[in-house]
């Protein structure tokens, strides 16, 4: 099934510059319905009231980290199926393992490029 | 409670010291306490007492030398000037690179908005170029995080220096404070870029130059 590029994508990062970069890269890939949250708690609130086809989240945020957000998402029956990509500078293997155990769909290490983002999104959502 | 094997005289001397200084003695008071204890010794001094005396005297000298060395490091200056200044400079780097990154992205977004006005081939090429600009801008996030780690490390050093100053007494914090203004040397004039608000703006520099006319 083709990916609906009109779906809502939630991007989460405490760094406004990074939110802007990801938003622009998603735009280049044809995804224009992008919402932003600056920490895990804000993202969780938005996920519970809205409908999102993908979450792209940073890890290192306060007060709720990306890993905590991921666990909350996977523990919520309504949100559980939402694909979740972690985009982070945390590149140690134990981080990747912890994210995988928490149910991450894919993992991107910063800095990254548009091609990597597209590849990871394709592996999670299917071809677009 | 007196330690087992401590003779009665020593026990009494220790009680007297405990009453005067309490159970905890600051490091810079150890020499004074040892001296007071030795001064209070009366009567025949045994070989064991002499050995103890030598050990305590040597300990006192060691502590004094250590204090002198730490004072020479000027811990107050490290904490209040060097670390504080380094932290401010690093914060300024983060602020300046963030502002510059946003300027670059403003320009890239403006370029991208021209795409609909161009033929498809040129528009695609333009999109590729603006994408590369956005990708390159991710450096700011990474450098920001690295600098935050350095600031945390500096904070840790600052805390440890502060503990050291507290342990050796507040007077060591102020050893570098002088009231006499020093004449500026050429080296003093090499300060590099100033932190926001710390320098003089161009208009004030122009006014200052004009004041010499």
TrEMBL record, chain A:
Residues 8-125 form the Response regulatory domain. Pfam families: Response_reg. One of its GO terms (biological process) is phosphorelay signal transduction system. Signal peptide: none annotated. The keyword Ubl conjugation does not apply. The keyword Chloroplast does not apply. Keywords: Phosphoprotein. This is Two-component system response regulator. It comes from Paramagnetospirillum marisnigri.
């Amino acid at each position: 099934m083709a990916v609906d590029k009109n779906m809502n994508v939630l991007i989460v990062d405490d760094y406004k510059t990074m939110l802007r970069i990801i938003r622009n890269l998603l735009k280049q890939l044809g995804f224009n319905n992008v919402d932003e949250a600056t920490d895990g708690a804000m993202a969780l609130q938005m996920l519970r009231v809205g409908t999102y086809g993908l979450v792209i989240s940073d890890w290192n945020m306060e007060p709720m980290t990306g890993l905590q957000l991921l666990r909350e998402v996977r523990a919520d029956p309504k949100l559980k199926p939402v694909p979740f990509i972690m985009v982070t500078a945390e590149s140690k293997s134990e981080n990747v393992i912890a994210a995988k155990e928490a149910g991450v769909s894919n993992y991107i290490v910063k800095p990254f490029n548009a091609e990597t983002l597209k590849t990871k999104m394709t592996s999670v959502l299917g071809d677009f | 409670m007196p330690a087992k094997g401590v003779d009665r005289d020593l026990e009494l001397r220790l009680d007297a010291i405990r009453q005067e200084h309490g159970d905890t003695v600051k490091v810079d008071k150890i020499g004074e306490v040892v001296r007071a204890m030795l001064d209070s010794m009366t009567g025949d001094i045994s070989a064991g007492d002499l050995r103890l005396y030598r050990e305590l005297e040597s300990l006192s000298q060691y502590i004094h030398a250590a204090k002198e060395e730490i004072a020479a490091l000027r811990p107050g200056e490290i904490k209040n000037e060097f670390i504080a200044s380094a932290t401010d400079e690093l914060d300024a780097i983060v602020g300046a690179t963030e502002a510059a990154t946003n300027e670059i992205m403003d320009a890239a977004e403006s370029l991208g908005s021209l795409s609909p006005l161009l033929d498809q081939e040129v528009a695609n090429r333009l999109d590729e170029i603006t994408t590369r600009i956005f990708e390159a801008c991710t450096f700011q996030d990474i450098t920001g995080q690295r600098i935050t780690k350095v600031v945390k490390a500096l904070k840790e050093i600052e805390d440890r220096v502060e503990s050291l100053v507290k342990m050796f007494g507040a007077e060591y914090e102020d050893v570098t404070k002088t009231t006499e203004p020093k004449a500026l040397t050429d080296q003093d004039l090499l300060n590099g870029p100033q932190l926001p608000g710390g320098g003089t703006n161009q208009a004030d520099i122009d006014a200052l130059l004009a004041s010499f006319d």
